[in-house]
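It is worth pausing here to work through a concrete case rather than discussing structure prediction in the abstract. The textbook approach is simple: state the sequence, then state the predicted structure, then interpret. We follow exactly that order.
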Amino acid sequence: MLSRRTFLTGLGAGAVGLAVNGCSKGGGSSASSSSSSVGTTTTTVLRAAGDRPDPSKPEGVDLLPQIEHIVVVMMENHSYDNYLGMLGRGDGFTRGPDGKPTNSNLDATGQPLRAFHMANTCQVPRKPSQAWGATHQQYAGGAMDGFVQSDSGPVAMGYWTGDDIPFYYALANTFPVCDRWFGSCLAQTFPNRRYLLAATSMGSVNNDLNFVISGPQPAGGTIMDQLNKHSIPWRDYFTNLPSVGLFPPVFQANQDKIVNINQFYADAAAGNLPAFCLVEPDYDRTSEENSEDITLGEAFTAKAVNAVMNGPGWAKTVLIWCYDEHGGYYDHVAPPVAIAPDNIPPMIGANDAPGDFARYGFRVPAAIISPWAKRDYVSHVVHDHTSILKLVERKFNLPALTARDANADDLLDSLDFDHDPAFLIPPKLPASHNNGVDALCAAAGPVPNPQG
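Step two, the predicted structure:
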């Protein structure tokens, strides 16, 4: 797997100019209406790339004045069931009389391996797998029974609970949790993060650095291009790698907007957060990718969320907590069909699993944190990462980048602008077990966990 440090080196080699010197080392219906019935999505009207949410109004007009700040905290590599399957809210595991999950997959010997509680909060190195071939084997034509026999192996059936990640469980129990938020494609980190910012992966299905350096740029541009066009402020607050770096020309042209994570905490405290921002962890240590201790990432998220909730801009903020893809961990809900973003096919070889971009990736944890959030609400509406784009486009009446975001839901089902904000006074959430400095374990425990 490509390391983040290698990525940074590659960006420099590609003459992108990282410039790390200064960075230090209401309504809600979209044209595509998604049924709230569990596991379905019904497209009633197809919109196209370039379409605005409100064609009767010009680009750049503010259609959601209740919101001034859209904050995205996208972590890495966990499925909904892996983190929130035991939440007891939303569509999680099926449990037996003993309270433990009954969900299982056959192992390499053909024996069922039930979902098990991980022995501690550290992860197995280089396992599980979210590669194109592995994800399609896991999907198994919709049967969702190929996880253990894929490159993920037995650890795919591991999960954590609120005893392990108390802040995340409180977050998902307090604010709207989205139990139909899917990754944007059945592929790895880079393709999914491209969907977050451009609503397409331009055909890429893996973390290929060469594609970053010399591959094509999205025909419709990125959300940063659209924001710049209308002088709408945005920032990528990064720790050791900005996601904007996936688009080298955008990265190079916007050095003033790609800033160190410390500036995020200063801006949140001063009420100076931009209209749109990414808040990014240390991708070597606190992103929650294997083999990291997941509590380090939870501590990072808790610090970011608390900074927003306790800042003067909270009253007009929507913060989205989600994950780029499932990381290879088990989930029981088959991803539904999706609208292909464009006519670019996946860059796969003759020996790769067949597939296309007309299907979502696996479910990931997601919650909508805002004073305007609905109380006691679980969103069953189908979302993917382009729903974030659709929210930004809805607010500023911006044209869709591709057909995917044109038809995405805009997340407004989780917000209520018709009544006083339910969370204007931020709730008190429990702290992570981790102080954000040291890992709580040195290595993953036994897999499978015989006590789990």
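Step three, interpretation. Residues 371 and 423 are 4 Å apart (CA to CA). The chain is about 25% helix and 10% strand.
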